[in-house]
Amino acid sequence: MVYNWHLGRQMNYPYEAAYPERQFAFVFNINRCIACQTCTMACKSTWTFNKGQEHMWWANVETKPYGGYPHHWDMKTLQLLEEANPGGQVWKGPAGGDPEKPYGEFAGKTVFEGRDTSLKPDSSRVLGYLPTDEEWNSPNLYEDNPLGKRGQRDNYKMGGGERLPVHNSWFFYLARICNHCSYPACLAACPRQAIYKRPEDGIVLVDQAECRGYRKCVEACPYKKVMYRGNTRISEKCIACYPRVEGTDPESDGEPMETRCMAACIGQIRMQGLVKMNQDGVWAEDRQHPLYYLVHVAKVALPLYPQFGTEPNGYYIPPRWVPKQHLYQMFGPGVDHAIERYAHPDRELLAVLQLFRRSNRIIFRYEIEEGPRIYEGELRGRPVTIYNDTIIAFGKKGQELFRTTIDEPVHVRPPERLNSI
């Protein structure tokens, strides 16, 4: 048994718990993603451009609710869990302030526990499935396809006029990489013990000298972020650009850097970091760490499908315009608070949101210097005051990485250069 703080309870897992001192983690702000696929191509051109890797997209952006890579990966896993525990995949207790159970308690079965009640061979340690070759084709199938009014199949609302808080016709973009889970299903399923978590940063890797291509990892991963390479007969996956994270990349000058997909993001939706871990598996309190603040203090960033049970280390600020029932299924009970807090940010949250993509260096701490009041008015029916605060980011050694202000500077091109590039 291990403790899963996403679920707020003990959970079955094939191995004893072991945690790194710091864990690779990230936050994606879905409200900002424009599906430009710059992250996708940055990863592809760096890691998966060789023969046998044509279908490998370690980083991808898919359109929800219809899109997915491989096709329908999440709906198929949710269906397997429902079949293993009919009507029992529910949460109990309110989401609260306890860091050991911030989303209440999940009363259903995880992919590790659902295996016990499903008709799977003994060699399957995790409830899962192998996608077909066809499901690995067309990674952008259903891109930009909206969902219309509920109950009206193939009938989309025409003419625009959509307004918050919920759109009648809607879709959103979900950027994904490997979550480098605290309890990886791929690791649990591998009969060769070829998959491991690095003790220094929790990055999950495949030892390709040990892998024999059984594809148990592909079957087990509920997010389908382990992929089989047919010409080498071994599995491969996102490696979190670990030379950059550990500071050994030639470009890094010894300083921890964000991954290629993070650094390439032009929508400024991403922030990556290394969070401190307690040896009970819960994040250690680190109040001035931006990821700790977003996940545990502001509580605007939520795990993707926490009910799978892998305790993913990827967190998402959910989109504000999507019907809540869909978001509850994807991100759990913390959705209402997350959207409310993001839609009406306080002074600190507004400052921390400015840190996204201001540097390719990993941020370990931030400070805020108060600035003058620059706006006072009304926002979404509530009074709002904005201050031009300065937020300062610090690196691993405590050095200042950069500073930025709430009010972004406006640069006016002089008349004599209006038509110049």
Topology:
Layout: E1 2-4, E2 9-11, E3 22-29, H1 38-47, E4 60-64, H2 73-84, E5 91-92, E6 105-106, E7 172-176, H3 185-189, E8 195-197, E9 204-206, H4 216-220, E10 226-229, E11 234-237, H5 242-245, H6 260-263, E12 270-276, H7 290-297, E13 302-303, E14 314-317, H8 324-331, H9 335-343, H10 347-352, E15 365-369, E16 373-379, E17 382-387, E18 390-394, E19 400-405
Parallel strand pairs: 3-14
Antiparallel strand pairs: 1-2, 3-12, 4-7, 5-6, 8-9, 10-11, 13-14, 15-18, 16-17, 18-19
Walkthrough of the structure:
- The protein is of the alpha+beta class and 421 residues long.
- The protein has two domains: 2-347, Alpha-Beta Plaits (2-Layer Sandwich), CATH 3.30.70.20; 348-405, no CATH class.
- The chain has ten helices and 19 strands.
- A four-stranded mixed beta sheet has the order 12-3-14-13.
Query: How are the strands of the largest sheet arranged?
Result: 12-3-14-13
Shape: globular
Helix/strand order: EEEHEHEEEHEEHEEHHEHEEHHHEEEEE
Mind summarizing the main beta sheet?
4 strands, mixed
Sequence stretches where pLDDT stays below 50 over 5 or more residues? none
